[in-house]
Design goal:
The protein is of the alpha/beta class. Helices cover about 45% and strands about 15% of the residues. The protein has five domains: about 100 residues, Roll (CBS-domain), CATH 3.10.580.10; about 160 residues, Beta Polymerase, domain 2 (2-Layer Sandwich), CATH 3.30.460; about 70 residues, Hydrophobic Seed Protein, CATH 1.10.110; about 130 residues, cca-adding enzyme, domain 2; about 50 residues, no CATH class. The strands form five sheets. Strands 9-10-11-8-7-14-15 form a seven-stranded mixed sheet. Strands 1-2-3 form a three-stranded mixed sheet. A three-stranded mixed sheet has the order 4-5-6, with helices on one face.
């Protein structure tokens, strides 16, 4: 029987009692295929490729399955892995894991003799609560969101499922970023929960059954206050049949759901269960990376698995002011080393549209340009010397086009800025890769060719306003935009004048007046109207009386059988 107040010795198994001994050391220069074969022969779960570099057998197998057998194994390895001794106390191991270490190598003398899995479920995180952050006094939208979260937790408990706020919601809460988008994860039937929540808040429910996701929109509190959109997902694991393909999904515990995400700062969740409301789960050291303002992919193959994460990374970097860590930069290079036939153009185009909704959109596009990410559109894409300048100009162009009354789609303007300096074949292939065809694709392709020509034409000296208007009026809006992007000061001034003033100039007399004055029906009427408009554009006398005298002279020529 235990005695009260008696001090009993605590048994600390140390690292030796926690580690997995299925490790093998191999040369650093091995390819993925060769390393996988060595792992199989040695029955090794982890291969050590040098000082503090290790690769998982599962990552090697996945890379080989995806056609990356010829890539160096070190390119898909974890670098700067912490190294400890077999005698290291468990509390030290726990601190390293809780700081975000994915694995720990165990060295005895000069040999690596084991590995500790930093992402195993046995590593319980401290039950830190952030309920005070949720409920601190703030704007009405924050209070409404908290009401919604508490309701979700109670409904989940009544249905026998566990509900968590997760991902971007938690990230932005910890950053004190203001308005919060509500993302929920359900350990159980997420779509059934979404329908129940929709009934409670009288909202509109949309279900995407293939991915176990749903959304609730236009909901109301009991007092009638509008609720934010709620995105709900069943906690899941994902399997990719090919790089860039949409994943197949199946239900999984929360820990697996968090670790299948993109970055550590999104592998965060908050319990909404009434008994533990606000308890934070940090699956991979996301809090640490938030504090250090860095983006860390959750795995070395992250950008290969889903190349659209490259665009997401640029969005986060521009919006949050974060940076990719060294592991992330290696993952980025690996992700850009190949084409992705399974990746749809629709998804690539959607990522650009998402970026352009952000206040920091053009900064994000500049990041992608610097990374070489647009090679995902075409392997021949290379940033021209003036492409960064084109991007900066594109932002101004959108503002100007809006004030001038020109219809300018932000995605199309961005595409023109990025593609107008590319060789013709690269630009056309990029549009096709993005799934942009039909009349829209034709206009953009034409703009990339004719825009520079128009800009050169409008740069000439002594160009009469009527000639400017004639040249600009003859092309679609996309060509005008491309000409502005590549044009110098003279061309831009003339295009701006045309958009604001020149295109609105009309003859004072109408077609009926011309017919009454003796201009014959048919092309002659159009020619006369254009002549009258050009006279006005060039500042010639343009009162109605002046126009009537001009038309009288023209009609006299027609009566004599002369052409106008």
């Amino acid at each position: 029987m235990a005695k009260a107040g008696h001090a009993y010795p605590q048994v600390d198994p140390g690292t030796a009692g926690l580690m997995d001994r299925r490790v093998a050391a191999v040369p650093r220069g091995l390819s993925v295929a060769a390393a996988l074969a060595r792992a199989a022969r040695a029955d090794a779960r982890v291969l050590v490729l040098g000082s503090r570099i290790a690769v998982l057998q599962g990552e090697l197998a996945r890379a080989a399955r995806w056609g990356l057998g010829g890539v160096r194994a070190s390119d898909i390895a974890w670098h700067e892995v912490p190294v400890i001794a077999p005698s290291t106390p468990e509390i030290v191991v726990r601190r390293l894991v809780l700081a975000g270490a994915s694995m720990l190598l165990v060295r005895e003398g000069s040999r690596i003799v084991g590995v500790v899995d930093g992402r195993a479920a046995r590593w319980a995180r401290p039950a830190l609560s952030v309920a005070h952050r949720l409920e601190q006094a703030g704007e009405p939208s924050r209070e409404t969101a908290v009401w919604l979260l508490r309701l979700a937790g109670k409904l989940g408990e009544a249905m026998g499922v566990t509900v968590w706020a997760a991902g971007g919601f938690v990230r932005d809460l910890l950053r004190d970023s203001g308005a919060l988008d509500v993302d929920l994860v359900v350990e159980g039937d997420g779509t059934a929960f979404a329908r129940r929540l929709g009934d409670e808040v009288r909202g509109r429910v949309t279900v995407h059954r293939a991915f176990g996701t749903a959304s609730v929109e236009e909901g109301r509190t009991v007092d009638g206050a509008a609720l934010p959109r709620v995105d709900i997902a069943t906690a899941r694991r994902e399997r990719y049949s090919a790089p860039g393909a949409l994943p197949s999904v199946e239900p999984a515990p929360l820990a697996e759901d968090l670790l299948r995400r993109d970055f550590t700062i999104n592998a965060l969740a908050i319990s909404l269960a009434p008994a533990g409301f606000g308890r934070l789960v940090d699956a991979a050291g996301g809090q640490r990376d938030l504090d250090r303002r860095r983006l860390v992919p959750l795995q070395p193959l992250s950008f290969v698995e889903d190349p659209t994460r490259v665009f997401r990374a640029a969005r986060y970097m521009a919006r949050l002011g974060y940076h990719l860590d060294a592991q992330g930069r290696r993952a980025l290079r690996l992700g850009q080393s190949r084409a992705y036939p399974a990746l749809s153009g629709t998804r690539l185009q959607a990522e650009i549209a998402l970026i352009l909704r952000e206040p920091t959109a053009w900064r994000a596009l500049a990041v992608l340009l610097r990374w070489g990410a647009f090679r995902l559109w075409d392997r021949g894409y290379r940033a021209a010397g003036r492409t960064p300048e084109r991007l900066r100009a594109a932002r101004r162009l959108l503002t100007w086009a809006g004030t001038a009354g020109l219809t300018a789609d932000a995605v199309d303007v961005a595409l023109l800025a990025l593609l107008v300096d590319q060789p013709r074949g690269v630009g056309r292939r990029a549009l096709a890769r993005l799934g942009i065809g039909g009349s829209r694709g034709g206009r953009l392709a034409e703009a990339m060719t004719r825009g520079p020509r128009l800009a050169r034409r409008l740069a000439g000296r002594g160009l009469a306003p009527s000639r400017v208007a004639t040249a600009a009026r003859a092309v679609p809006t996309e060509t005008l935009l491309a000409a502005w992007l590549v044009g110098g000061p003279s061309a831009r001034r003339r295009l701006m004048w045309f958009a604001r003033e020149g295109r609105h100039v009309r003859a004072g007399l109408g077609a009926e007046a011309l017919l009454s004055a003796g201009i014959p029906r048919g092309p002659a009427v159009g020619q006369a109207l254009r002549a009258l408009r050009d006279r006005r554009l060039d500042g010639r006398p343009a009162s109605v009386a002046d126009e009537e005298r001009f038309v009288k002279r023209e009609s006299a020529r027609y009566r004599k059988g002369e052409s106008a």
